[in-house]
Amino acid sequence: MTPTWTRLPDLASRAVGGGVAWANDELFAERENLITKAEPEYRPHTFGHKGQIYDGWETRRRREAGDDSAIVRLGLPGVIRGVVIDTAFFKGNYPPFATVEATRATGHPSPDELTGWEVVVPKSPLEGDRKHYFDVAVERRYTHVRLIIHPDGGVARLRVFGEPVADPGLLLPDALDLAALENGASVTGCSNMFYSSPSNLIAPGQANSMGDGWETARRRDDGNDWVEIRLAAAGRVRLAELDTSHFKGNAPGWASVRGRDARKDPDDWFDLLPRTRLQPDTRHRFRVSGGEVTHARLDIYPDGGMARLRLFGSLTEDGLAELVRRHGELTG
What we know:
Family: Belongs to the allantoicase family.
Structural class: mainly beta
CATH superfamily of the largest domain: Galactose-binding domain-like
Helix content: under 10%
Shape: globular
GO biological process, one term: purine nucleobase metabolic process
Low-confidence stretches: none
InterPro entries: Allantoicase, Allantoicase_dom, Galactose-bd-like_sf
Distance between the termini: 35 Å
Order of helices and strands: EEEEEEEEEEEEEEEEEEEEEH
Pfam families: Allantoicase (PF03561)
Strand content: 35-45%
Keywords: Hydrolase, Purine metabolism
């Protein structure tokens, strides 16, 4: 059974700004493939001047003692809940064992400046052409991970699922996207995720296609679809952006946004943006007003797809204090 933590964001994905900063060897297949968002592919009889072309990272055969490794800079620093090491299509050339380490750094260090590595997945056996799931139970904020393969071979993908934790020193408390993954927001529930994950709604950057957004199945009843988001911290929303880019024949007809303050009354939802008509393939921006909120709910009518949801506003004093406290607990 697939672990529930795979529903969390992939902190390492290129789609959220991750990068493979270094690898000691990538003779057969490039290290950057490790964090490609798409599932790995295999095309038989596609040979380059170094042999079969693989959609993954592959090192040469070692003839001396040692191991190979690659360092990934997380696009979304945060708490790691689980790691997937995928050896898809590597059958006679996969590594028999792997270890995953992590560290946290400030600023923008080069790979050789990173120190303080901690083991989050101990040396574990691998098999060829399969996904390996590893739980991580370390309550720390990390910015980089290091995949070590023993001794050499190929890995198609490295997925690092977890909860983003923002650095409060890089936030402007009076002007930020309270619903952004990179600021610490998260999806807490949704009615339907048939085509794609609702976490895409609050991912960094603009959507490149419909697959980068949230899309539901077609409804055949009188209801509507929705997604609920725990904001980065308590704040006041001033501007809402509802982006239907790329959704042309399947955009919602209407949408609304409500908020609640779970610290006071978790059942008291109030309008931030009343039910409003939407256009296909359009970035809609609305001024909104309302009280302090810790959660928001987007309702779409009746169904369809949304590329991004942005809720720009300001943190309350309590909200900023909460972010500072959590960051300190996870980095101290």
